[in-house]
Amino acid sequence: MLTGLVPHAGAMCLLDRVLSHDADAIRCAATSHRSPGNPLRRGGMLPAVCGVEYALQAMAAHGALTADGASQPPGYLASLRRVALRVERLDDVETDLLVEAHALSRGARGFVYDFAVSAGDAVLLSGQAAIIIPEAA
Known about the structure:
137 residues, mainly beta, six-stranded antiparallel beta sheet, globular
């Protein structure tokens, strides 16, 4: 789990490990989509749209890793664009999820990433997310 790199703990920390990262992008793996205890499950299933949260956590981990490991502060999802869901659910995906995020714009108070969640060679969902980091009180 990426505890400490994302602003979540326990079962809400959805990613298992970082596979690679550089100044512009990150690749993570996840197995929590298969867990009956996944906190995002509804009605016994994990809807594909929940893959957006996997991508958001990868973005937070990327922010922490490119800031010398300092935890990414909690932010607010400002917008989602071009989200394409190619499956209905994630809990029936038998292989690990590959979660990729590529920074398009990064600043002190926000960032924009393209993202994709895939399994094997199949892209399950993709899109673009903008996050706003509020000023500390």
